[in-house]
Amino acid sequence: MTKILLGCIADDFTGATDLANTLVRAGMRVVQAIGVPDDALDVGLDADAVVVALKSRTIAPADAVTQSLAALAWLQRRGAQQIYFKYCSTFDSTPAGNIGPVTEALMAALGTDFTVAAPAFPDNQRTVFKGHLFVGDLLLNESGMQSHPLTPMRDANLVRVLQAQCRGKVGLIDYRSGAAGADAIGARIDQLRREGVRLAVVDTLSNDDLLHLGAALKGMPLVTAGSGLGVGLPANFGISPCADAGGLPAATGLQAAVSGSCSLATRRQVRSFIDAGRPALGIDPLRIACGIDVVAEALAWAETQLAQGPVLVYSTADPDAVKSVQGRLGVEAAGAMVECAMAAIARGLVLRGVRQLLVAGGETSGACVQSLNIRQLKIGPQIDPGVPWCHALTDVAGAPGLHLALKSGNFGSDDFFSKAFTMQR
Question: Which tens digit of pLDDT belongs to each residue from 26-35?
């Protein structure tokens, strides 16, 4: 096996495919591993980058650090020349972490005294200006992310957010350096280092800024970012965009979507699917809590619909409904209950012949992938920015090959579900 050029550690499964998609579009051949791989991972000679997908965004910081360091050790054994810690373009975290603690642990393990934090993803309207994260024209804390059930983001000032999570000093590489090019960014990095800064949030307004930043980061042992920075790093390894990097086997079988995200974008996508007259079934967490077998109900319903086209099973709800359920069941209990049900439904759908499965929501995607015992994904063509179709192997009886799309809750156009399945046909 050849050495890995770029070794990536992602803090959730949809974010991992988001980054892998960006790298593929930039010409890299990419394998995504689910969890820290064992030595049997089939990287072979055709992978320039490996993305290790963890489910560490919302777990205890110490556990997130342990998992991330294990992923780093595996990537180092494979000779990774640069490490990329990937988190969400909306910087999903809490005052305790996990972005800051994981970053500082990786820095210590790599023996480096400086790195950047660059969450921007301009293709999906995530930009950073004067250290403040914007979603479209709105500050992060006005974008709907302030109502996130697990990681509510109530401050758009990322320097302040990251400083609360870090022991080292956090600074800023502002838009003037980014616009001036790689040399100006390098000079600003040198200045910040002299001032004792260990992590620097990077202003980013466009993909041109990301290309400048990528060039400036050549040879830096560790970078931390959303998926957007993936456009700027492959050129450092002599790689340019290539249409052959994302080829997948032909899609077959039945089609279904499972949605656990409650983001504004996913709520619009669920509504669009329903308004188009397509079959959809909502899951009520309170019925799960009452001991009703909603998994069996959902699968029995799906059996009557699948032959006619794609179906959707969803627990997606508006913020008031989510808060009401959390108030009655508890935040963690409600989330775990729904994740478990959606994962069982996903597995049951595959057992019933679904070979094209779309999953919406980071936590839901993690639970579904684990339920299907998927260990590796081949990254294919993009559906919408940040979301590709992938191909996976699963141990579910009769389904050795499965086309899978893992969608971050905030990503995708309103007609995303219909578009994804139409694309496969």
Answer: 999 888 999 9
Q: Please tell me the pTM assigned to this model.
A: 0.81
When the pLDDT of each residue in the chain is averaged and rounded to a whole number, the result is: 92
Write out the chain in H/E/C secondary structure: CCCCCEEEEECCHHHHHHHHHHHHHCCCCEEEEECCCCCCCCCCCCCCEEEEECCCCCCCHHHHHHHHHHHHHHHHHCCCCEEEEECCCCCCCECCECHHHHHHHHHHHHCCCCEEEECCEHHHCEEEECCEEEECCEEHHHCCHHHCCCCCCCCCEHHHHHHHHCCCEEEEECHHHHHHCHHHHHHHHHHHHHCCEEEEEECECCHHHHHHHHHHCCCCCEEEECCHHHHCCHHHHCCCCCHHHHCCCCCCCEEEEEECCCCHHHHHHHHHHHHCCCCEEECCHHHHHCCCCHHHHHHHHHHCCHHHCCEEEECCCCHHHHHHHHHHHCHHHHHHHHHHHHHHHHHHHHHCCEEEEEEECHHHHHHHHHHCCCCEEEEEEEEECCEEEEEEECCCCCCCEEEEEEECCCCCCCCHHHHHHHHHC
- Which amino acid is located at 36 in the chain? V
Helix (H, G, I), strand (E, B) or coil at 406: strand
In 113-171, which ranges are continuous DSSP H helix?
A: 158-165
Determine whether domain 6-241 maps to CATH 3.40.50.2000. Answer: no
| pLDDT (tens digit per residue) in 194-247 | 999 999 999 999 999 999 999 999 999 999 999 999 999 999 999 998 766 667
Give the residue extent of every domain in the chain: 6-241, 247-424
pLDDT interval class at 43 (50, 70, 90): very low
Of 3.40.50.1460, 1.10.10.10, 3.30.930.10, 3.40.980.20, which CATH number belongs to 247-424?
3.40.980.20
User: What is the tens place of the pLDDT at every residue in 59-109?
Assistant: 999 999 999 999 999 999 999 999 999 999 999 998 899 999 999 999 999
